[in-house]
Structures are given as structure tokens and as C-alpha cells.
What does this fold into?
Amino acid sequence: MQTLTIRKPDDFHLHLRDGEELQSIVADTALRFARAIIMPNLKPAVTTVEEALAYRERIFSVLPDKPDFQPLMTLYLTEKTAINEIEQAAKSDHVYAVKYYPAGATTNAESGVTDIENVYPQLEAMAESNLPLLMHGEVTDADVDIFDRESEFIGRILSPLLERFDSLRIVLEHITTSDAVGFVMQGPESLAATITPHHLLMNRNRLFSGGLRPHHYCLPVLKAEQHRQAVVTAATSGNPRFFLGTDSAPHAQTEKESACGCAGIYSAHNAIELYAEVFEAAGCLDRLEDFSSRFGAAFYGLPLNEQTVTLINQTWHVPASLPFGSGRVVPLRAGKDCQWQLRQ
It folds into this structure.
């Protein structure tokens, strides 16, 4: 039986929700990942260091049997974010980045930024304090095709931003296009990108395979096959500026299967197993540890994890749904098989 042992990975883009929903899902991440960058788009949003630390304690409170898991907290950037809040975040031992959402771009992004120039003072403070900016890289203009929002964002917002703030460390989150891959490859060392399992595994045809598939709906949306292939090439290339970020984003099954379904795919239940599948198919299993356990840590200036995980090349069946607070959540590849299995 083929096995693969690697340093325990880190997830540099994760949604954990809160309350009973948090309690239902956090163990899936803690089992597979040593650390995770925790997204701040709760309701209400996590906009201050005090709120981030309180959220961190709530995460720990539901993980008594996983004391080694470390949530790396972030702040939600708004046009009202105070400069001293940025300074406090930079000094904190537990806040690692600030998250930029364009207003209305995704779940709970109503308080996001309406015009990037409105947060230039905050970005200047972040550059001075070496606090990374995590960017949901899409424009939200109604006249821009949803499949073009990432490429428009790169030309209209990201490129000028890099010129103006050349020392600001930026992570372009959950990239989905060849445009983003090329831009990051040619960009400065201060620019990196995270890549999700669902954007590696699926193209936009999977949204409509045999009918409308709400559990494959995410933002940014799945793209055409040539873009998926470009993202796979980036992930498996050994380039240290591409690293793992699941963007695992659970929603209750009833909220996905509705007249106006929520965007988000729950992948934490089998994420590292699915990444292994992608890397094996590309003939690059030997590069999985760098992508999942080294490159992101290096970009964030974190020590490498000492723990390991072992994957077994053995098929297992993914449940059709899982508990999620008072409801259920449908995981990625629900009701089908995974090729790799985590040894527990």
C-alpha cells in the first residue's frame, strides 16, 4: 500500500463560522492542519484586535482534545478601520493579517471596501508594520462578467496597488485564472497566492453537470478548463509563491439548496486528501509538502511544523452530508470516493 508522510500542513485561508456551526466543523481542520488563517467575515465582522482575540478563544473552547492546533487571526478591513487598530494588530502575537473584501463580493462582505483609495492610509500603515494584506481578488461592478472579475481586478486594482505600495506584502486569495497565475509569477516577491482544492479539481462545467449543482457554487466561481489547468500547473510547479488555502466555506444544506443559494464549498473534511489526488495526477507528489507545509509558512515568517501526517493510497467514501449546527453541510465530493485517506 502506498503511503505518503509529510509535515503537517497549514491552511492559509479558512472559514470556521461561529457558535454551534464552529463546533461542528473545526475538528476536520485540526485533524489535517497544524495552523490556519481564520477569515474574519462573521456577522458582525471581526474588525478589531479585541474581537479577533475573543474569536480565537471561542475556537479554542471547542477544541479541548486538539491543543496543538493554532488559529491565526485576521481583521476585516473597512473604510473606518482605525490606524491604531492596524498598529495593535501588527504588535499582537495572534493577529497575522488584514483581509480586504470588495463590498458585496461574497458572504458577509457588505461592510467591505467600496473604493480602494479610501483605505490607502490603512495600507500605508500595514506596509510600514509588515502586516500582510489578504485580497479577495474580484471587482464587483454589475457590468463586468462574473467570469472576468478576477482579471479585471488584477488590471484595475492590484497592479496599481503594487506600484504604490511596493513593500506591502499581499496574498491574492483563491486564484482561479491563468491571468492570476501569470501575474503572480511575474510579480514581486512581496506577492503570493493561495489555491483551493475545488479550483484545482473542477471547471465551470461542474456547476451544470446533469443539472444545476448548488454545492459547486463558490466565489470566485469555477472557471473554464484552460484556467483550471493553469492553476494546477502553478500549484504543482514548486514556485514558493503559490501555497495551500482551502477557502473551505461551509453553509447549511438548506441555504445552498435554495432559490438564492449561498456561495461556498466545504472542503475541510477531506482537503489534504484531495490536494494529494491533484498532485499525484500531475506526477508531482514529491512537491505536495512544499506547497502545503513550507511555502506558506515561509511567506508568513512562521516556523515549520514539527508534526507530520500520513496519507494512504486507499479509497474511502465521502459522506453525503455532515452535522452543521442544527442542520447539515454537504462536503466536497459528497457521496463519492476519495483516492487518498488520512491515517488517524
Summary: The two ends are 16 Å apart (CA to CA). The first helix runs from residue 19 to 32. The CA atoms of residues 99 and 134 lie 5 Å apart. The mean pLDDT is 96.
